[in-house]
Prior knowledge:
Elements lengths: L4 H10 L8 H13 L5 H7 L8 H13 L5 H10 L8 H13 L6 H5 L8 H5 L9 H9 L1 H9 L9 H20 L5 H38 L1
Helix pairs in contact: 9-12, 10-12, 11-12
Amino acid sequence: xxxxxxxxxxxxxxxxxxxxxxxxxxxxxxxxxxxxxxxxxxxxxxxxxxxxxxxxxxxxxxxxxxxxxxxxxxxxxxxxxxxxxxxxxxxxxxxxxxxxxxxxxxxxxxxxxxxxxxxxxxxxxxxxxxxxxxxxxxxxxxxxxxxxxxxxxxxxxxxxxxxxxxxxxxxxxxxxxxxxxxxxxxxxxxxxxxxxxxxxxxxxxxxxxxxxxxxxxxxxxxxxxxxxx
Length: 229
């Protein structure tokens, strides 16, 4: 497999029992099974030697069939194992199935699990189920502090239009338009941030219209004065 003596030492530290596995009856068959899925067996053995202690019939094949039955190709399953060697060490009934069912409630495509199979290693109660836009996240506090922008803009509506900066107001319109799109496209969608920037966009557009009208009135006054002279 091309493993160095140092790598073999780390494997034995992580899984001392591996030395008791029969090469022909256990290790070779497991290695061939993963190799048929496109997995780099040497890397998998180094990262998660515990996987080689699992039964092909009782553990590995049911796991593979689980993912194949949910629309993944054998190549995609191999990629998931390569990226997260511990994936097949989890219980199918107690871990993968409940987390898969919860995953379906989120607005993600199933390809995301190919990119990040480590999802199955997170605790549902402590890491996964807590809201990703809840009060313990920047997805919550970011919009909270962003509300200072539309509030300040609303206060400015009471001021004379001559005090409005057309350039700055236009920049704020573009800024909020970009963040409105971000809030809608990000997964999960951040509706709090979206409402914040919709509010700011509305106020900024109103301010921009006041500035344009004021500029038009000022220009008209100058033209009338020029005619009077």
